[in-house]
Amino acid sequence: MSNIVLNDLSYNFEPLKLFQPEPDYRVNEKELKKSKEKSRALIEKIRRNQKEVVGGNSCVERSQDKN
Q: Distance between CA atoms of 55 and 67, rounded to whole angstroms?
């Protein structure tokens, strides 16, 4: 496979290795819920910041206005 260097990081595009999880593996529901809430809050914050920066228009709408 080929190596690509981007921003001083080297990326080696090798296929991902698949693995089988253990049959008795259980997800920690409490940690999963906390992670989902944190992700939702982060996404909402990013969306609010985008609206403030662009002035209420999405980036797509803004780029179409220029054309």
A: 18
8 Å CB contact between 53 and 62: no
Answer whether 11's CB lies under 8 Å from 4's CB: yes
Rg for the chain, CA atoms, rounded: 20
CA-CA distance, 32 to 41, in Å (whole number)? 14
Contact yes or no for 59/50 (Cβ under 8 A): yes
At position 26, the amino acid (one-letter code) is R
Cα–Cα distance between 28 and 34 in angstroms, integer?
A: 10
Confidence of residue 48 (pLDDT cuts 50, 70, 90): very high
Its pTM stands at 0.46
